Amino acid sequence: MTTPADVEPDATDPATLRGLFRNPAARDYVFVGLGALAMVFVVLFQKGSDLGGLMLVLVGAAGLVLRWPAAPIFFLLLLLYFSIFPFGLPPADENPFEIEDGRFRVTDLVLAAAVVVYLASHYRVYGLTALAVPAETKYPRKDAPPARRPAALVRRGEVARLFYTAAAVAVAGQLVWLFATTVEVDPTAAFPLKAAERRGRGAADGLPPGLTRFVLLAGVVGVGALLARLVFGYWRLRRMTPAEGGMILQDEGWNETRRERVRLETWRFWARGRADDPKRGTTR
Description:
- The protein contains ten helices and two strands, in the order H-H-H-H-H-H-H-E-E-H-H-H.
- By secondary structure, the chain is mainly α.
- It has a two-stranded antiparallel ribbon.
- It starts with 16 loop residues before the first helix and ends in an 8-residue tail after the last helix.
């Protein structure tokens, strides 16, 4: 009789360190993530932050190969710190026009795209090797296998589409930042948004620059979330089958009349109890 211990593990199982580099789908994302980390190091080294680049590469590579779920969080925190303090210690860059001069800078575009590629590669590898989605039950069995994404579902050209998406995200971020740094807010005007009239504008023309950028970014995020909700909500309705639509309408009908139905069922239960036992005046 063959026992589970006698069965040899699959050499291409990405859950093992050996299979991580033997499985074609997982291996592609590992090398893509390592290449993105190398690009992050080159950009930070060009900015004079060689220590920050080395720390980011170590944290990112260890998290990618060992599948640490918390590695992207530490990676982003370190990137934020060394972006503010390139040499590792305060003070930060005190150039008052750095924000305006940094728009559509090639090194910043490359850095943003590389960070997006690394994060996507890390979570793809984590989904292929550990846990792609949360468990369906609140208390899953200890012997239940993790809900991993099958490597066979990785389609051809997925890595290329990742590069295109990262480039689009980097350019879209720069466009949003261009809007936030070239428009100022004047609460006293009939239309509160207007183009900045001078470089390094101050609070005399409206809100302070930092508060202006915060208000504009918050507005962009809010409007973008609303539009995304409308678009994806309509798309979900378009793809819904008649059975799914009927189920949703029935569920909404039950929710709207829940109190009245509970009251009716309570009286029906009481009447059924009286009919079964006439001598009993009340029921539980």
